[in-house]
Model the fold of this input.
Amino acid sequence: MSLIEIKNLHASIEGKPILKGLNLTMGKGEVHAVMGPNGAGKSTLAKILAGHPSYEVTEGEIWFKGQNLLEMEPEERAAAGLFMSFQYPIEIPGVSNQLFLKTALNAQKKTNISNEEFETLLAEKMALMEIRSEFKDRAVNEGFSGGEKKRNEILQMALFNPDLAILDETDSGLDIDAMRIVAAGVNKLRRSDAGLLVITHYQRLLDYIRPDFVHVLSDGKIIRTGGPELALELEAKGYA
Done:
């Protein structure tokens, strides 16, 4: 059984078609990269998988671990093992990182983890992501640099341990050092029974997170698929 299978996906926002027959199948343990020009539909794909309410699926199917993803609410998708790292993580003033993460973890796992158990788990994952301990007491993303925000997103991924992680332009706004640290954290979280969908404009991220498959998305559909060498070709020649 595939981890996720997207069949003939058509979607629009405010009546404007964005995805126009997209097909994509991912197996367990695979890393897929989706590349393409601005406006091709890359972030739309990520948001539809996560269940963003502004997008309307007009045709097609999405099956995640044998379940009809399109019939599930966003919180149900998260509980089923789907995670999305945002391109522009939001700030939540007045809410500590620790409180936010504990509340989110309890909601996702449908449990009530004790403070002691959570603090131990959080300390372990923060060390993995090279995040200083004082960040747990700061308001969510408030005053964080671009790199710190992205590392905080991957910290969530480490805590939630998803079966499918979607990284929507995680490299956006990162310098080389920050990207290397974020990518190293992602690589530590890879599992043979889980998948990773990396959405990016640039090949440089794929130097650190090596994909099994690279897909070119253009005008709402995948027009070409290849191995890691395809990303190098795109970097050299462009999408034209």
Q: What stands out?
A: The first strand starts at residue 4 and ends at 13. Residues 4-237 form a domain with the Rossmann fold fold (CATH 3.40.50.300). The mean pLDDT is 92. The chain has one domain: 4-237.
